[in-house]
Amino acid sequence: MARGPRKTARPIASLSLGDLEAMASNAISRWIVLQSEKLPRAGWPPEDPIASFLLG
């Protein structure tokens, strides 16, 4: 279930550094979750370094 870009409630220029860091952290976390769900379905070998990192 991929989601496209969303509009923020405020203009980007008005966001604080903390807001931007939180948005980036959430985006990275979401990407890791999506990839960790996708890799087993795609049949990636468990010994692959990326799969090991994402799947633990």
Briefly say what this structure is:
With 56 residues, this protein is an all-alpha fold. 59% of the residues lie in helices and 0% in strands. The mean pLDDT is 82.
Structural summary, described in words:
With 56 residues, this protein is mostly helical. It has a domain at 17-55. It has helices at residues 17-42, 49-55.
Topology:
Elements: H1 17-42, H2 49-55
Rg measurement, Å: 15 Å
**Principal-axes shape call:** elongated
What class, by secondary structure content?
mainly alpha
Number of strands: 0
Query: Topology as H/E string?
Result: HH
Strand residue percentage: under 5%
The overall average pLDDT, rounded, is: 82
Intertermini distance: 23 Å
- Outline the biggest β-sheet: none
The stretches of 5 or more residues where confidence is low (pLDDT under 50) are none
Proportion of residues in helical segments: 55-70%
Q: Count of DSSP helices? A: 2
Which key phrases capture this entry?
mainly alpha
